[in-house]
Every structure is written in structure tokens, then in C-alpha cells.
Amino acid sequence: MVTLTGHSLTIEQVKQILWKQERVEASPEAMAKVAESRRAVEEIVASEKVVYGITTGFGKFSDVLIAQEDVETLQLNLIRSHACGIGEPFPEDVSRLMLIFRANALLKGLSGVRPVVVERLLDLVNHRIHPVVPQQGSLGASGDLAPLSHLVLVLLGEGEAFYQGEKMSGGDALKKTGLEPLTLTAKEGLALINGTQAMTAQGVINYLHAEQLGYAADGIAALTMEGLRGITDAFEEEIHIARGYKEQTEVAKRIRAYLENSQLTTRQGELRVQDAYSLRCIPQVHGASWQVLGYVKEKLEIEMNAATDNPLIFDGGKKVISGGNFHGQPIAFAMDFLKIAAAEWANISERRIERMVNPQLNDLPPFLSSNPGLESGAMIMQYAAAALVSENKTLAHPASVDSIPSSANQEDHVSMGTIGSRHCAQIIANTRRVLATEWICAMQAADFRGVERLAPRTKKIYELGRTSCASIMADRVFHYDMERTTELIENLCYNDTFLGLQKNTLMEA
């Protein structure tokens, strides 16, 4: 069981919730704070004070006062009118994290909702009811208004949800699990949708998959080193300590450990004096991407535990402050940074693919073909990888440098963080396919060099890869090999097979 406090949720706990099906609960102390802030809201409504979002309209309508008898209607209208998301829905894991992160933010006790609202969010999580949330339509400031409104619709018995593999109405999903729809009261609709939970939820999923891609990139690159008879001197510890980047030093350590006892790698001067940058600079390039992951993880863990709605209630209601914590700029920057890091894994991987298939750059059969000329071998695999790399360059353009005014220019600067987060997911998917292609080519190069000469650890990577892609004895429809190998890399995110090998390598090195 993972206990939410509003302050202490971590990426490691998220892994437990997503992949180990841990249930989620709210801490009693945090729920007491929720109840306290709720009493402050009820006092504001009873005394008819003018407070944004509680007794007024929203956005440009902040100067419109709302009568006490219309407070519930105001909240319902808010959710329905703001549910303007478009496009394909977010994956269920993203929807699940949106519920968890929204509940965790409310548990800080600064939002003024009733405890039952938090309870119902966690009910959806524990019953595995995942609202259908369209991916497009958020500007990433005033929060993820459209996506979160679709999330809230299910609490009201409206909208749509995924339940037990089936898409159904939100009302039906609640009925199947014995849950009652909520009726929102003062401030609750605003508190539920004023936040960055869509971009943050997708961002956390991005991080988890990028982390696994990083390990995969290091291992696959080590196998490529053997296929190209790479020079190991460039990975010696002294050179990386001399520069001082921890992540670069760690990548070099991993590569050395993978290649230990290889009969295929070479030393300076044996075949050549220096390798091309795509081999020699693996620690520097991969290490820089690992640096980005550290930055992104830090920002995501802050945002997962942040109060991001508006207004916020302090000192038992003595201070109700309108601010801008809903602005997604920190996560927008983080996602744009992660886009670049993931794109670079693909960029350098594609160059290593080129070095394996180009007969002018190696002594392997042209395009790794068993019958060059009659058969094209991996020729068009490299084309496909190059196309994905080029597409990544377009997607890597920072979403956060854009802005557009909304709500009659009241909301005149926005983050576009959700767009950045979505584009990051696409770059990661593209990069996974490029790495899968490198894996296929590296295995084929190993076949030509002699699999028995591989290092013990890279041989395990070879054997794992061969479970999805058989040796290429003749031309075939390689699309299926590429898709199966891509799926293998993606599935490694959910278990310890590849990562487990990596941890053991680090411990033994």
C-alpha cells in the first residue's frame, strides 16, 4: 500500500503503483488538513465574501459574483464547459497517474475540497477505473483545464472511462464498482482542474521509459562495439574521471563491464588508432542524456507533490491567495529537455547503424547481407531509422518557447507543457525503434564475427534479442522483426530482465 501525504510521493512509489498494482490510500493526517481547509471554504460561502473561484466566475469572469444558491451549478457548469479535449485519449497509465497526482495535490490541505472528493479519486485508482482523457486541447496554464475536466466528469457519473479493458460511460463504470457519483460544491470543480497533472503524469511515464531506454542504449551500444571491433581504450576510467561528469563515468563503467573478456574488441593501434565519434564518444553523449534524466526526475518529483490550483487557502482561511501555481513552465522546460536527451540516443544510434551497414566504413558484408546484391539486407532498415531521427528533430523543437493568449487576454502567457510532454512521448517511441534497429544490426554483425567470441554479458544481450528477431539468412519483411524488437525493449520497462543484468554488472564491475 502506498500512502499519499501530499508531500512525499516518489518515482519509485509510482513504479510500485503502476507495475506492482499497489493500492493507494490517504494519510489520516493529510485528510485532517483537507477537512480543515474545507471548513474555511464553507465559511467564505456562508459569509458571502468575494473570493475568486468560490463566489465568483472564472478567468475573465472573475468579476462576476455568484449567488450562494448557484454555487453547485457554477461548479458543474465549469466542468462541463471545460471538457473540450480532442484527439486520441491518453494511455490508461497516464490517466491513472492523473488521478493519483490530483489526489496528492489536494492532500496538501490548501485547496478547500471535501475529504470525500479525495476519497473518490482514490476509489477510481483502487478500482482501476481510468477516465478517458483526450490528449489535445491543453495550453498548460490555468492548469491542464480540458484534460482534467474529462477526468472529473467520471467522478460526476458522466464522461467515459476504461474499466476492465472496456470503454464505457463514466456512470456505468461507477455502477459496476458500487460507487456513487459526486455532486461538486463550492470551489471543488476549480480545485480539481486547476493543475498540471496531465503534463506531469505523461511526463512521469516519459521519464520511466526514457530511463529504460538509457540502459538499453548502453547495452546495445556495447554489442555494436563488438560488431565493429571497437577500441576499448576510450572507455578507460582515467579519461572520464579527468572530465568530471558522474554520468559519463558511469556509462563508461557499464560499457567496460559489458565488454569484459570480449574477443572481438580491439586496443589502440591494433586495427586503427581511433574510432569514429559514434563509438568513441558513447560515454560523453549517453552520459549527457543521463544528466538530463537526473534533472527531469527532480522536477517531476517536486511537481508530483505540488499545490498547483488557484486560489490556495492558508492559515485556516485567514488568507486566500490567488496566484499562478497552475502555470506549467517548469514541466514544459523539463519535457523539452527530455525530448532532446531521448532524441540524442536515437541520433548517435543511427550513426552506429550506418557504420555497421556501410561497406565503406567497415569490413563486414555490405548492408550485413548474406548475399549482397541479390539481397539488400539491412539497407532500408537504416533508411527507416534515419527517417525517425529526422522526425525527432522536428518534434524536439521546444514547445515551451511558444505562447498564445486566452480567456480574453486575461491568461496571456501559457506554457504549452502538455504539448511538450506529448511530443516527448513520441520521440521516446521513435528512439525505441531506432535502438531496436541497432540491436538487430549489432546481432547480425555478431553473427558474421562469431557469436562465440562475444563477451559473456553482451552474449546475454544477443540471446535476449534473438528471442524477437532470428538471424537474417535471407531477405524477408523486416518490419515484423523491427516491431517485435521494439516491443521487447518497451516490455523491459516493466520487468527487471535487462535492468537486472545492468544492476548486476554495476555491482560486479
TrEMBL record:
Gene3D superfamilies assigned: Fumarase/aspartase (Central domain), Fumarase/aspartase (N-terminal domain)
Location of this chain's protein in the cell: Cytoplasm
Enzyme class at the top of the EC tree: lyase
Protein EC: 4.3.1.3
Pfam families noted in UniProt: Lyase_aromatic
NCBIfam families referenced in this protein's UniProt entry, alphabetically: hutH, PRK09367.1
Name of the protein: Histidine ammonia-lyase
Source organism per UniProt: Fictibacillus aquaticus
